[in-house]
Amino acid sequence: MKRIWPFRHVGLKVLSLVLALLLWMAVAGEETVERSLRVPLELQQFPAGLELQGDVPATADVRVRGTSGALGRVSAGDIVAVLDLRGARPGRRLFHLTPEQVRAPFGVEVVQVSPPTIAMVFEPSASRQVPVVPSLDGKPAPGYVVKNVITDPANVEVVGAQTAVSRATEAITEPVSISGARDTVREEVTVGLLDPALRLRNGRSATVTVQIAPGPIERILRGRPVHLRGLSDGLSAQASPTAVDVTVRGSREALSAIEDVQAYVDVSGLGAGDYGLTVRADASPDLGVTRIEPSTVQVRVSRAK
Description:
About 10% of the residues lie in helices and about 55% in strands. By secondary structure, it is mostly beta strands. The protein folds into three domains: about 30-115, Beta Complex (RNA Polymerase Alpha Subunit, Chain A, domain 2); about 125-215, YbbR-like domain (RNA Polymerase Alpha Subunit, Chain A, domain 2), CATH 2.170.120.40; about 215-305, RNA Polymerase Alpha Subunit, Chain A, domain 2 (Beta Complex), CATH 2.170.120.30. The mean pLDDT is about 85.
């Protein structure tokens, strides 16, 4: 049988005893203190098919107790308040938050939690398809216009509480710049929602194609004679001025093949006298009259001699 020597390595044994005694004295000498902390609130066991309405506290205030050394070693995330939502149902619900629902490291005691009760409103989940409405920034180059805008996908599915989904009308995109564009612009952009109560099920980006084409341009037709229409028999009339400038707008093709644009005033039913009349102009269906200068003329109607 091996003989045990109690005094073997006596120096190491004494050193270990002294260190243990010093450690005990250091721990025993620390004061017990209390401290208030703001900790994250974690929601667990969220029931499927329900959505939270309104704002929910993201943190809770807790009062903790322990030695100054133990509390000094506590870092962010070491203490977490946990709320179990397993029994939640549609409607307004109250949940108690107790010290037992706060996770804390060894040596730290949770003595109080605030708020002790948290109110939450639950609604059934819903979803629907809404169109993606692209946002355009700027204008094409002079003489060019936006001919068409295509978004792929054209629709996305939004998810959220029933009331929020029912009022959803569209999803929007990041702005697509078309400043100075003379040709088609195609860009992949992020799709989002303005209502924070809604979210996209999938498809968080879309390709927006903006077709740019030469737009209607203006042309000034100067010195167009003013015709008198509807003059009664036995009367004569004279306009002053006798000619006006007519500005028309249309495509390049329409303006290149422009036909005569006739300026006129309507004197139907007027007897002898002086009148200030508005000048109008006839143009082909492919052209639009945008301006006539001057817009009115003086017309003197007299009896024919």
